[in-house]
Amino acid sequence: MGKTMRDHLLDTLKNLQEAEMKEFKSKLTDIKLETGYNHIPRCHLEKAEPVELTKLLISHYRVHYAVQVTTMVLEAINQRDLAERLRRATMAEEHWEYN
Q: Which ranges carry the Pyrin domain (predicted)?
């Protein structure tokens, strides 16, 4: 069985170094979101490690939008390679989910 979108999201977050993770969480609290979505409260993000952060992203945004938000944040913090890898990995997964 292949990786799920959640797996790809978690793998991406695990690739961030400590300083990059702090920057990711900071940017996550102020990035522009689509109408109907709210930011994850900063107090929930502060101590969240990749596994917990993945759960928070999915519970707040659902998996497809969580991937989109993560990609936007990664690009905003100059982690374009990670953003592109996540985008490519999840595009393939999304194709299988809908077919």
A: 1-92
